[in-house]
Specification:
alpha/beta, 12 helices, Rossmann fold, elongated, single chain, ProC C-terminal domain-like fold, 2 domains
């Protein structure tokens, strides 16, 4: 995949980069995904008083803003009046109606970032006035701790400067990569939905450790640390997973016995099926 990555170690406002502290960012729908995106942008350098939360009601906006350490918008119209970036975090079935509703309120030079799966750039650009800068962002939930991944899709009217700005906003997410809309389906299988699959695997390993005799809190600590350490080894040392696996597989030992059991249980096929199903669902959502 031809992708441009921005690391979480990059400075949020480099000497020649965009001044995120001067931006006015509006997040409409700071829920399960909009909330982590807002937190990521705050970590990148957006000022809390200049990141405005506009949920379905003033009370909902205040609760979300308080939890994030941001500012609540009294109304969408007031928040949008001076917006430089508008994040649309509502559900996919709501987003086109919302874009049509807000089309005259969003400033002409603002960048609109959609978090909605299945809604294409063409659909979003059609719902907004001609020439508006639109970016699709597909984040996963680990961005909330700076260890996630974001796939970015650039609309036809996005300038190079706006493209750099969006990457800067996601510079603390973990990894931000440029992908095409065709690649988004594979991205969802490989990153977007994958965190849930990992959570399910960790849950299963924890339950089995308890069955084998460990207390649950100890089992959770050991398994989460081991998963974290294994991923860190691969990313920091550049080791191929097969090489790392072979390095802990002594002939006739416990590890090879466990690996053989995984293969007999269809571990590879199960993981592949889950990723493929997520990607296929993404394709179906786009066609609906």
């Amino acid at each position: 995949m031809n992708a441009t990555a921005s690391s979480a170690d990059s400075a949020p406002a480099a000497a020649n980069g965009p001044d995120l502290g001067a931006l006015q960012v509006v997040v409409i729908g700071a829920g399960n995904m909009g909330g982590p995106v807002a937190r990521t942008m705050l970590d990148a350098g957006v000022r809390p008083d200049r990141l405005r939360i506009a949920n379905t009601s003033p009370e909902s906006s205040r609760r979300a803003a308080e939890a994030l350490g941001a500012a609540a918008a009294e109304s969408r119209g007031d928040a949008l009046a001076e917006a430089d970036v508008v994040v649309l975090g509502v559900k996919p079935y709501q987003i086109l109606d919302l874009a049509a509703e807000l089309r005259e309120q969003i400033p002409a030079d603002a960048v609109v970032i959609s978090l909605a799966a299945g809604i294409t750039l063409a659909q979003l650009e059609e719902a907004l006035p001609e020439g508006r800068a639109v970016v699709r962002a597909m984040p996963n939930t680990p961005i909330s701790v700076g260890e996630g991944a974001v796939g970015l899709m650039r609309g036809s009217a996005v300038t190079d400067e706006q493209h750099r700005l969006v990457h800067a906003l996601f510079s603390r997410a973990g990894v931000a990569v440029d992908i095409t809309e065709e690649q988004v389906h594979a991205f969802i299988g490989a990153a977007g939905s994958l965190s849930a699959f990992v959570f399910a695997i960790i849950e299963a390993m924890t339950d089995e450790a308890v069955r084998l005799g460990l207390k649950r809190d100890l089992a959770s600590t050991l398994i989460q640390q081991t998963v974290r350490g294994a991923a860190t080894m691969l990313s920091e040392n550049g080791i191929h997973p097969a090489v790392a696996k072979n390095g802990v597989s002594s002939p006739g030992g416990t590890t090879v016995e466990g690996l053989a059991a995984l293969e007999r249980a269809g571990m590879r096929a199960g993981v592949a099926a889950a990723m493929s199903a997520a990607a296929q669902k993404s394709r179906e959502m786009t066609q609906d």
